[in-house]
Amino acid sequence: MKQDPVLADIDGLTVEVDGQVLVDRVGLRIRPGTVTALVGASGSGKTTTGLALLGEYPAGARVTGEVVVHGRIGFIPQHPASVLNPARRVGALLRDMARQQVRDLPRTRRRAAARQRVAEALADAQLPDAAELLRRYPHQLSGGQQQRVVLAQALLLGARVLVADEPTTGQDALTKRRVVDQLASVARRGIAVLLLSHDLDVVRELADEVVVMRGGRVVEKGPAHKVLENPVHPWTRELLAEPRTVPYAEEGRAGTEVLRVDGLVAHHGAGGSRVPVLRVAGLTLRTGECLAVVGRSGSGKTTLARCLAGLHRDHRGQVLLDGEPLPRSLRDRSREQLAAVQYVFQDARAAFDGHRPVLDQVARTAVRLRGAGREEATAEARRTLADLGLGDDLVRRLPGLLSGGELQRAALARALLARPRVLVCDEITSGLDPVTRRSLLDLLTVLVRQRDGLCVVLITHDLDTAAPATRIAVLDGGEVVEVGDREQILTAPRHPFTVALLRASTRRGSAVRP
Amino acid sequence: MKRPGRYAAGAAVAGVPLALAVLGPFFVGEPGARAASFTPGGGHWLGTDFVGRDVLDQVLLGGRPVVLVALAATALAYLVALPVGLVSALTHRRWLEETLMRPLDVLLAVPSLLMLLLVAAAFPPGAVGLALLVALVSVPDAARIVRAAAAEAASRPAVEALRMQGESWWRLAVGYVGRSILRTLAADAGIRLTGALYLVATAAFLGIGVAPDASDWAVMVDRNRAGLFIQPWAVVVPALLIVALTMGSNLLVDAAMEHRAPAGRTPRDRVRSEPAPRAPVPPRKGRRP
Q1: How confident is the model at residue B260 (pLDDT cuts 50, 70, 90)?
Q2: What is the largest CA-CA distance in chain A?
Q3: What is stated as this protein's family in its record (chain B) (predicted)?
Q4: B273 to chain A: which residues are within 8 Å by CB?
Q5: Is B166 on the interface with A (CB under 8 A)?
Q6: Cβ neighbours for A131, distance < 8 A, ≥ 6 positions apart
Q7: I need a labelling partner for B13 at 20 to 30 A (CA). Which of A27, A132, A222, B45 fits?
Q8: Which ranges in chain B belong to alpha helices (H)?
Q9: Residues of B with CB below 8 A from A58's CB?
Q10: Inter-axis angle of helices B233-260 and B182-205, nearest 10
Q11: Across the interface, which of B263, B278, B280 has its CB nearest the CB of A59?
């Protein structure tokens, strides 16, 4: 053999469910020690292809084609907690697996050998403080740690191919960095990695081979440098397009003050373990502007958003709308106050009732908050949804039948029907692929520019998303470390944390340019 | 497809005692002259019981009190447990939650049969009283289940989104939370019904709430015990019917839950492949919906 042996070979794989083709004649070859990236928008068939390696198919699928695999396959799902038994400690989970492998040793040596294997797997998965970690339950670990425990399980089982599904989605820049290093070290050990991702920064850094998928088909594949630098297919080009830099709001249109945060201290926890997690001395929002709030996960940015919307009650200080203090809990806010400050949730799917059609749910805002009649509200909901690119047949369906991007638009429509003056968007683009994200942000731009006086608070961990905002507030450890116009923050940051954040983004090759 | 099979099994097992309980009384003939006690045959298909009545007639008559009281008790228990559980799950007022749930915890600590015996000794109940009593001892469990299930549903962003829309409490609690926990409640209602059947049958067996010669499956089991070896049918048939009712209702609830379970968890034998894609399957570590 001239080339490295092939560890996994997919040939002409077609997966159909109820006549709908999820994956159409996909071919893929995976060699040891390489990272193959499957890139594409959500719903492009990445996950179906990746799971085919594991012999997993959707319920009722018709499968044709061939999948040949040599050696074991490990799988790191997008939500690693879903594969860790919540009732058992991490150590027990790992030792169970190790014990299977040391069965043929003499009884006296099994225990030590199993322990040894677990320790090795943990070290390979780059889990420091292993001893302490083994005593914890999965829910006591951070998302990143859970991910590494699943990786350790795969390594323990001697996986030769690792399928990683969106390992960096929704993670901040510094966490992403660690995931990248970890996968790179796995590949160095000769394990083949199949990376399913729409995070192009990660793909750029890791991938040896790139396979671009769209609508279940492979539209382009080849060595990473070739595909990423000289994309041939127009879809690949669209996927690789630079993030937007045109500002969301028109420059110099910011008007009068709408919302002011005054001496806010928010707490988490209850009783004796109540800890302050956010301190904002003062923050002002003006009509027609877009304020981005940036920070790592756990920096308190979501808490800030929730305080504004009345979803987080446990805080001191005031949130003033037109100089009038807003009640802390939204249960005490009047209809007008509720309508004035609307909130769009990060997880659009979880924020919709799965049992009612999207259109009905969206229309309720106008009924409840503006006293519109049912007919009138439905008509307005339909118009607003259509403006956001959601057709009539789509919005009559139940939320489960819409994609994440579509649901996020519906969630925007639901908030807009209140005719809000302040729209708080909490990480609404995290978890979306670049193309969907761009179109959602374009919509937001249209909204800010068209709706007179609407002001948007954009909570994000992604500097690319924050860059086109009018002003940017940087949060770290529950404190606002810096607030300023975008120009100033992006070109002349004053606080060291802002500098670090900017550097982490630019090192990964993304374009943060004013 | 396995589901219709499970429905059929549940329906068949529970159907016989239910049909007997509901329709049985319509088929009972005039009570004839009493024969000798515990005689097999002799014009009586299932023989005679301890006072010489026709066992078949007794079986036809004896289901209704057991089933009705158990069903009424379960319904009553939920009538109380649902509002209590929902209110305490959805309120953010700690004291309200405590006021609602704490007394139930106390009730929970008392063994249900002991409670039944004690209250029955003080106030001998009738059928209605028995239903109330059984409902009372089922409430704490049911309320805790409702609250736990509802608390999970109430912490979802969908509830916050509904609040953001200014939806009424009723819409939140019943329209969303209530609907989301329906599956859990259906499963729990099945267990609750089984428990109620057990309690009602035990109470009847111990002679609480029923006359000693009442036409009642549980009473039959108790009273005809003496003749078990002479005329077994008078014990075996009602006992089997009670068992079938309990088992069948559990199977039905199971099947209903299976039916409502989200798609994507179907067994792999439904995946047809040609030619078979062969991948050695690692120990299953997770699947996505």
Answers
A1: low
A2: 79
A3: Belongs to the binding-protein-dependent transport system permease family.
A4: 62-64
A5: yes
A6: none
A7: B45
A8: 3-23, 55-90, 94-109, 112-122, 127-154, 157-164, 169-170, 179-180, 182-205, 217-223, 233-260
A9: 264
A10: 170
A11: B263
Locate the chain B residue with the closest alpha carbon to A72. Answer: B282
> Looking at the predicted structure, is the pLDDT value of residue B30 above 80?
no
User: CA torsion sign, A113 to A115 to A116 to A122?
Assistant: positive
Domain assignment of residue B129, given as a range:
3-29+37-267
What CATH number matches the domain at A257-507, 3.40.30.10, 3.40.50.620, 3.40.50.300, 3.40.50.2000? 3.40.50.300
In chain A, where the domains are located? 8-240, 257-507
Question: Strand pairing of A290-294 and A471-476?
Answer: parallel
For tokens 């991490």, what's the residue?
A: A90
What's the pLDDT score for residue B287? 37
In 3D space, the residue among B5, B16, B3, B4 whose CA is nearest the CA of residue B249 turns out to be B16
Q: Enter the pTM of the model.
A: 0.76
- Report which secondary-structure segment, H or E, holds A156: helix A143-156
B170: its two tokens = 């009723």
| Mean pLDDT to the nearest integer, B174-203 | 87
Q: Determine how many CB atoms are found less than 10 A away from the CB of residue A55.
A: 21
Query: Coil, helix or strand for B91?
Result: coil
| Beta partners for residue B272, in sequence order | A62
Which amino acid, residue B95? W
CA angle A452, A453, A457 (to 5 degrees): 125
Q: Which residues in A lie closer than 8 A to residue B282 (C-beta atoms)?
A: 54, 72-75, 157, 159
pLDDT at res. A436? 83
Report if residue B277 sits inside a domain. Answer: no
Beta bridge partners of A68: A9, B278
Q: Indicate the residue type of A170.
A: G
Test the B interface: residue of A20, A359, A368, A425 with most B CBs within 10 Å: A368
Q: Which residue of B has its CA nearest to A66?
A: B277
C-alpha span between A483 and A473 (Å, rounded): 4
What are the tokens at B58?
């007794």
- CATH class of the A8-240 domain in this structure: alpha beta
**Region class of A221: left (phi > 0), else alpha (psi between -120 and 50), else beta:** beta
Q: Do A426 and A472 contact (CB within 8 A), yes or no?
A: no
The answer to the question of residue B129 being in a domain is: yes
Q: Does B96 touch chain A (CB under 8 A)?
A: no
What one-character-per-residue DSSP string does A362-416 give? HHHHHHHHH---HHHHHHHHHHHHHHTT--HHHHTS-GGGS-HHHHHHHHHHHHH
Closest residue by Cα to residue B285 from A202, A159, A36: A159
B270 contacts in chain A (CB < 8 Å)? 59-60
The H-or-E segment that residue A107 falls in is helix A107-124
Q: Say which CATH number the domain at B171 has.
A: 1.10.3720.10
| Among B170, B176, B180, B173, CA closest to B149 | B180
* Cβ pairs A/B, distance under 8 A: 130
Sign of the alpha-carbon torsion through A130, A136, A142, A147? positive
Name the closest residue on chain B to residue A15, using Cα atoms: B273
ipTM for the complex shown? 0.78
List Cα–Cα distances, A415 to A248, A425, A443, A447, in angstroms.
18, 10, 14, 12
The answer to whether the Cα torsion of B223, B224, B226, B228 is positive or negative is negative
Give the amino acid at B272: R
CA angle A18, A24, A27 (to 5 degrees): 140
The dihedral of CA A149, A153, A154, A155: what is its sign?
positive
Place of tokens 């005719």: A419
